[in-house]
Structures are given as C-alpha cells and as structure tokens.
Amino acid sequence: MEIIPQQHIESKIFLFRGKRVMIDKDLARLYGVETKALNRAVKRNIGRFPEDFMFQLRKDEFDHLRRHFGTSSWGGQHTMAG
How many H helices and E strands in the chain? Predict the structure, then answer.
C-alpha cells in the first residue's frame, strides 16, 4: 500500500460554498478506483452519507476552478465531495 504525502492530499482540497471539498476525480485516485466507479458506489449507498456529502458544481464554480488550473482535460461537470 502506497503512503500518500499529506501535502499531496491537501493540495487537492478546495474551499467551495464554505466547505472543504475534493473533486470526485481526485478522491477516486486516492482510493485507486475510476471516477465512474466511485460515483456509482456513492449513488448506490447514498443513505450512508451525510446530506451535504456531495454536490454538483455550478458553471461559475467549475469555470473558476478551471481558470485556477489553466486548460483542463476534465471535461463535463464534476461532483464535489466534502
């Protein structure tokens, strides 16, 4: 099992809507699964998570995040988990 440095994890945490969150893609990487698989698992087990566990980025939030990192290869909209 690989130990991930704390700084790497902290660099993937953002502040949105007053909450510390991670993008689904980054969270999936931490768990070693595909993003689609993580999102499916969460949807199948949504009752196990707090109501505010995840949310969809608004267009302005996504645009801000994309500008922060320059050109993005993410595409689509992303879910935030926090």
Answer: 4, 4
- For the segment 41-80, what is each residue's pLDDT rounded down to a tens digit? 988 998 998 887 888 888 888 888 778 766 545 555 555 5
Tokens of 11: 């660099």
Exposure string of 28-45, with b = 16+ CB inside 10 Å and e = fewer, is: bbeeeeebeebbeebeee
Looking at the domain assignment, is residue 1 inside a domain? no
Taking the C-alpha atoms of residue 39 and residue 28, their distance in angstroms, rounded to an integer, is 9
Phi and psi at 61, nearest 5°, equal -70, -45
Q: What is the pTM of this model?
A: 0.67
CA distance 11 to 31: 16
**Structural domain of residue 77, as residue ranges?**
6-81
Say if 40 falls within a structural domain. yes
